[in-house]
Amino acid sequence: MNAAAIMTHDVVTVPPDMPVPDLVKLLLARGISGAPVVDKDGALVGMVTEGDLVRRAELGTARKRGGWAAFFTGTAVLAREYVRSHGLLVSDIMTAGAAAVGPDATLAEVADLMESRNVRRVPVVSDGHVVGIVSRANLLRAWASLPKEAAPVAANDTAIRDALLAELAEQHWSRRPENTVVVNDGVVHLWGLAATEEEKRALELAAMRTPGSKGVESHIVVLEAEPYPLLLGA
Predict the structure, then answer these.
(1) Domain presence at residue 151
(2) What's the structural domain count of the chain?
(3) Do 91 and 51 sit in the same domain of this protein?
(4) Are strands 95-96 and 121-126 parallel, antiparallel or unpaired?
(5) By residue range, what is the domain housing residue 167?
(6) pLDDT digit string (tens) for 144-156?
(7) Looking at the whole model, is its pTM more than 0.85?
(8) Are residues 20 and 95 both part of a single domain?
């Protein structure tokens, strides 16, 4: 599945010279929280979102820094903050150089970009023009539209154990020695130590999701939860 398969085609775009009050009215009327900014040729030049409208002089929410904080912030940053809180046009408040993906981008690439740039939506661009947009909601709808899980897979204990160990071998957080995983009549028994509760839960989830697994019995000791240091052989 790629970006083109889940993107919203009917994209609301705005020009850089749109007055900010008009932008606010548009976002509210269309029930959207952001829009790509395109020039007269339809090329993407930035993104504008509700987050760009939080710090506004009209609302009394413009950022205010004390004397020392302002001194160490630097004039360039202070001037930029003033422009964003007092700006008249979309170009004053938008985030320039918005991240975008092509229609063939995988969902993993879209998710990576959202996470690395801390954004909620990513424009889809083809031949220099915006052809769609992928939001977090689009990703959730894609997940909800996946086929229901197939019937449980029948597998013998050895196959289940081998599959689980192979999965854990690919995970950088896991250092499971083979003798800490035992499968008996389809039930996975986990033994040994885990550094944190999160590591223990990750191991349990891996075991639960292994094809053929009928259940998990966790006997793992979590080190961060132990009141006293564990001694070897104890």
Answers:
(1) no
(2) 2
(3) yes
(4) unpaired
(5) 157-225
(6) 988 876 666 678 9
(7) no
(8) yes
